[in-house]
Amino acid sequence: MTPEQRYLELLKKALAFTLWPEPPVPIETFDYHRSPIVRRLLSLLSRLLAFRRLHLVKERSYGLEEREEGRIWPMYAQTMVGLKRLDNLQDCVETVLREGVEGDLIETGVWRGGSCIFMRGILAVYGDTTRKVYVADSFEGLPAPDPSKYSADRSDRLHQIKYLAVSQAEVEANFANYGLLDGQVVFLKGWFKDTLPRAEVQKLAVMRLDGDMYESTMDALGNLYPKLSPGGFCIIDDYALAGCRAAVDDFRASEGISEQMQAVDWTGVYWRKG
Ligand SMILES: C[S@@+](CC[C@H](N)C(=O)[O-])C[C@H]1O[C@@H](n2cnc3c(N)ncnc32)[C@H](O)[C@@H]1O
Question: 191 CA distance to ligand 1 centroid (A)?
Fold first, then answer.
């Protein structure tokens, strides 16, 4: 293995937090499925314990495979996509660098920023000083569904989950912790429907979509796919989610995209623009 490969292997494992066991989670972290009364009681109890610097936590016992495949919502990781989808991202970025496919890199839906930090790390390790990494997110979580426009999102409840809302300041701090926050990283803050049509992005070599919903996936495809260079990669993180899958299938059908989709793992897919 070259020193570059060693750095990227370690970077992936650090970002996915697979070097360490998954820690217990504070009891209120994933409380959206509990009744309001139980939520309130737990929150009160947590606050009382906090006076004594005690925390109420829940043990989690996940196998390495679930963690590597990005099947869990992790506590400390900077990315939830798992190692297989990070390997795929690495393959795509290394291919466009090697073959000189023109354009920048973007992820729409970044959460704590791990996949974007990884893309910036790949550019850094190969000495690319020209391409940008666009980091597009509301930094406030997912939008409430708009069923009048997107019926596939009708029953989506992801917008209620605070765990998915990570501020831009936190994401910037994560980049800085890895020594990868600089002028090649550009933040696009806001809802995709507002930011992507106006973004300064000219040409893309890799677009990675991870917005979970029909609306979020369609906004990204509609605004960004025309900017993807021939030979560039379109990566979809959430093809296992019905809304995302419907958006991808609708978009591919309406645009007559015939390039074969390749599976990355149980949910990730990608294709290369011809
Ligand atoms: C599943 S998380 C992304 C995980 C991330 N790619 C990683 O590497 O761990 C989904 C993210 O998409 C963002 N998001 C979803 N739909 C959006 C929209 N329409 N506009 C802006 N942000 C959106 C959410 O704020 C959240 O950060």
Answer: 10
Q: Which residues pair with 236 in a beta bridge?
A: 209, 269
Counting Cα atoms < 13 Å in the Cβ hemisphere of 180 gives 24
Residue 238 Cβ < 6 Å to ligand 1: no
Annotated domain spans of the chain: 82-272
CA 20, distance to chain mean position in Å, is: 21
Q: What is the pLDDT of residues 115-130, one digit of tens each?
A: 999 999 999 999 999 9
Any idea which fold 82-272 has?
A: Rossmann fold (3.40.50)
3-state secondary structure of 102: coil
Q: Say if ligand 1 is within 6 A of residue 72 CB.
A: no
pLDDT tens readout for residues 210-249: 999 999 999 999 999 999 999 999 999 999 999 999 999 9
Q: What is the pTM of this model?
A: 0.96
What SS3 class is residue 180?
Answer: coil
Number of separate helices (H) and strands (E) present in the chain: 9, 9
Residue 218 carries which DSSP code?
Answer: H
Burial of 52 (0-12, 13-18, 19+ CB in 10 A): exposed
